[in-house]
């Protein structure tokens, strides 16, 4: 069974550019969420999508956006990149159902973004 | 507001010894889930174990067990017979609510080093 797949794994962007990161959840999982990890702030929740609708949103500026497609795949976009956006971006998926298996949240390998 | 506290920034353990990683949490919800993840230097967040607040028995997954003490609001991870490959960052996380709203709050993590 394939895990959560994130692309690209590594990328370097220039300040002011925009970036799109992609996430394919585990087959059958309907919930996809995104996190930003930095040495200073740790792991912070960005947003969560369920059935193509944003269900939760963290405390990030509007430059950070996302969407989910009908096949549950998700993308997140960061516009007008700043140096502080350099981070590991992690995608997670969940079945979002009752029981232990339904509640487990699995993560992908992450996308390392460097803004120069 | 929910909060996770991991008081051990780093731990050094001899190979084959058991190790306990501490985690305390704060929430006003009666229904919540607790997670432990392992993050090697590659960045991937690997799911280890899950405990629901209403689960009567402590969760176990192979060499991992979760010592859940609800009254103390603690959810310590126990790794039996540690191996060199266990060296990594370990994160405790919590989600309020048993189903829906797949939003995790993370602790600051514990860096575990296994010595041969």
Name some characteristics of this structure.
heterodimer, A: 116 residues, mainly beta, seven-stranded mixed β-sheet, four-stranded antiparallel β-sheet, 11 strands, B: 116 residues, six-stranded mixed β-sheet, 0% helix
Specify the number of helices of chain A: 1
Biggest sheet architecture of chain A? 7 strands, mixed
Biggest chain contact: A-B, 29 and 27 residues
Uncertain regions spanning at least 5 consecutive residues of chain B? none
The geometry of chain A reads as: elongated
Strand content of chain B: over 45%
Please trace the helix and strand order of chain B, writing H or E for each element: EEEEEEEEEEEE
Q: How much helix, percentage-wise, in residues of chain A?
A: under 10%
Low-confidence stretches of chain A: none
**Helix-and-strand structural type of chain B:** mainly beta
Largest sheet of chain B: 6 strands, mixed
What is the chains' assembly state?
A: heterodimer
What fraction, in percent, of the residue positions of chain B are helical?
under 10%
Chain-averaged pLDDT of chain A: 94
In whole angstroms, the N-to-C terminal distance of chain A is 37 Å
Any idea what the radius of gyration of chain A is? 14 Å
* CA-based gyration radius of chain B: 14 Å
Shape of chain B: globular
